[in-house]
Structures are given as structure tokens and as C-alpha cells.
Amino acid sequence: MESVKNGDLPEDVVLEILLRLPVKTLLQLKCVCKRWYALIGSSSFVNQHFSQESNQEHLLIRHYRPDEERYAFALYVDEIFSGYEEPDHLQMPLTVAALMGPLNGVFCVVSISGHMALLNPAMRQFKPLPLVHPYVHPHLSSYDDLLGFGLDPSSGDYKLVSIQYFWNEEMDVPHYPSLVSVYNSVVIPGDTLRMWICEKFQEIQVPDCIKSKEGDLALYDGSIALLSCDLDKIDKCVDVWVMKKEGFWTKILTVGPFQDIKWPLGFWKNSEVLLETGTSLLTLYNVYTQKLRTVEARRKENGFFIYWVFSYKESLVSLKGEGNKCKLWDTSSDLVKDFFK
């Protein structure tokens, strides 16, 4: 290591070698010398490493293990899904109510008690979020809430949107006011997580022809996409709409019809639509070959099972903030256990 430190290898060669290494190894190499510590933690290196071809995107799903009667997160090792691993740092407690993302390798985690945190499992970093509790009139009672997790690609700014719906008990007719909070964090890859604040937002109208159908949002080729499906029909088709310009939706394709589809889940590398079947199997439909293939055969035998499906890449994005308040991601620690109670 001393010879490398003294510059026997050209800088560009050292950089190319480091960029091809996994996050876990790079975290160990940051301790070799100050120069490597600064290089691996720099914004430019974090961005290059995330985009490096060797840092491949993997399919991550939560599935059910009937032999052990538990849920587990499976990370598929290649694009043909020939096998999978269940890495310890990607496992979540059963009391996870929602897992959103990942965005540049960072997830937003919500516990059943309503606690929220940012998580970069590759960095083993876990950061609980201090959420604002705005005043609500006493005659309004909460009955539902929605959450969204996003990233501004131009600034690296993570955003968490909370929409709370209320029942107005003072009115004779149904009235459902809502309270929307947008939490903003200025996070640039390689930088730190700073204070969360509230800001304004605006609604986006969906195409009129799908308002009577079920649907879900996803990302397709860098744009917002909407997958809609009429679940009441026996032969179900999935329409894919893309908004490449604000307020303007274009239907780019229709897949199906299918007789055994419960819900469209999203996309895999823009060429395949992820679907959950009526028998709770994970299936991919290739939009070019128009063929189906089943990925996951482990399913819950009793009751409904809804897949959690993610496209995951490791990331060096740090969640450390002022005072180094980021926590270690370890599901056996008391802090994490208390968070997920």
C-alpha cells in the first residue's frame, strides 16, 4: 500500500481500479490513506461509481419463505434471474409499513408506528427523520394518508411528500380536506443530509380516459409513467402512459390481454413490465418479444400477498449530517429495534 501511496501507479489507473470495486471494499480502502479517503468520499467519485458499468442494477424483491414462515428480501444476481442472495444488510423487520425508492441507492423507510428514516444499506447508514407536526383543527379526524419519495436530478435534492386526508365532522355531507407536507433535504452525492423544511407543491392531472381505472405511478426511461388497468375485466390490459412534458400524457403502449393479473408493479430496464398474477407469482412481460416469464415461485399459501419490487444499485451517497448524527444500519441494534416497534 505504501508504494501506491507514493504514486508508483498513475492516478488515472488508481481511479479506474477503485471505480470497479464494491461499496463495502471501498469503505475499507478509505482507511488506507488521506488521499484515498478524500477521493472515495468526493462528489465526483460517488457519481462516477454509481454510473459505472460494473455497478450493475439488480432486481430486489420481498418474498415469502413458506418453509420458515417469514418474509425476506431477495437480490437477484443477474439479468436472467438464475439465482438470488438474501444479504443481511438488505433485510428489513416485519414491522416495515412501507419502503420507497431507491433513489441513488437511498431508501425511505416507514415503520408501522409512523416513524420515517432514510437508509443507505450499502453504506450501512440509517437516519431517522424529524418530521413536522402541523396544527390540525379539532373537528378534523384523520382517516388515511399517502407518502411519496422523490429526487430532483438537477440538484440531488431528496423530497418526501406526505398527504393526510381528514373527515370533517362538522359538515352534514362528506367532505375530505387534506394536508400536504413536502419535506426537503439538500443532498448532493458525496455531501451531507441537511435540515428538512416544508415547501409548496402542485397537483398533476391524469388522463381523463383512465380516471375510472386502477393505476400506479412508476418511472420509465427517466420520465413519470402511469400504469392503468381495469381490474374488473376478465381479460385485463395494462396501458402505459408517459408524461415527458408537464401536464401532457402520451400512451406509449398497451400490454395484454391477461386473464391472471392482479396488479402491474412497474418496469424492469424499460423493456419488461413487472406483473403480479392472481396466484401471487411475480411475472415479467417483454414488450418486444411479447412473452411472459415467471421470476418468483415462492408465495404465501394463505391470504393475499403483494410483492415489493425494486431496481437496486449500490451507492456511496452519505446520509451523515451535522454532528455526524447518522446511525449504523444494524437490525439487531436497540435503536433500530425501537424505531420499528
From TrEMBL:
Q: Which SMART domains match?
A: FBOX
PROSITE patterns named among the record's database cross-references: FBOX (PS50181)
Q: Which residues form the signal peptide?
A: none
Enumerate the InterPro entries for this protein. F-box-like_dom_sf, F-box_dom, SCF_F-box_component
Q: Which organism is it from?
A: Sesamum angolense
Annotated PANTHER family: BNACNNG10540D PROTEIN, F-BOX DOMAIN-CONTAINING PROTEIN
Superkingdom assignment? Eukaryota
Q: F-box domain: which residues?
A: 3-53
Q: Which spans of this chain does the record mark as coiled coil? A: none
Pfam families from the xrefs? Answer: F-box
What SUPFAM superfamilies does the entry give?
Answer: F-box domain (SSF81383)
User: What is the recorded name of this protein?
Assistant: F-box protein
